[in-house]
């Protein structure tokens, strides 16, 4: 998602070490961007990546196989689950 200068209304500030600033300046020059544009794009990329990573569940191969097996070969409901289903059916019948 590109950000245009016309919708930039907020400002952030950060204090960084001189060597970090030098690296950011160099990277911005390489990409042909201003320091501000470079920092905004990098921050946005990092934010989107962080958000996406929280929405993905990663499982080991063994765990993936276990989930698939449980979906394909559903175990019989336990007595407690049977009682919960019956209680739910009763509640639904009473509310009609």
Structure characteristics:
single chain, mainly alpha, 4 helices
Task: Please outline what is shown here.
By secondary structure, the chain is mainly α. It is built from four helices and no strands.
If you had to describe this structure to a student in words, what would you say it looks like?
- The chain has helices at 18-31, 35-54, 61-72, 79-95.
- The chain is mainly α and 96 residues long.
- The protein has two domains: 14-54; 61-95, no CATH class.
- It is elongated.
Q: Any idea what the shape is?
A: elongated
Number of helices: 4
What amount of the residues lies in strands? under 5%
Number of domains: 2
The arrangement of helices and strands along the chain is: HHHH
The helix content is 55-70%
Rounded radius of gyration (Å)? 26 Å
Distance between the termini: 49 Å
Q: What topology emerges from the helices and strands here?
A:
Elements lengths: L17 H14 L3 H20 L6 H12 L6 H17 L1
């Amino acid at each position: 998602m590109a950000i245009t200068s016309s919708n930039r209304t907020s400002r952030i500030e950060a204090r960084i070490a001189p060597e970090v600033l030098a690296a950011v300046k160099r990277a911005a020059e390489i990409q042909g961007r201003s320091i501000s544009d470079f920092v905004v794009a990098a921050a946005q990329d990092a934010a989107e990546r962080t958000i996406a990573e929280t929405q993905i569940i990663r499982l080991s191969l063994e765990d993936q196989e276990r989930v698939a097996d449980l979906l394909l070969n559903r175990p019989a409901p336990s007595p407690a689950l049977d009682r919960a289903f019956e209680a739910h059916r009763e509640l639904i019948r009473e509310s009609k």
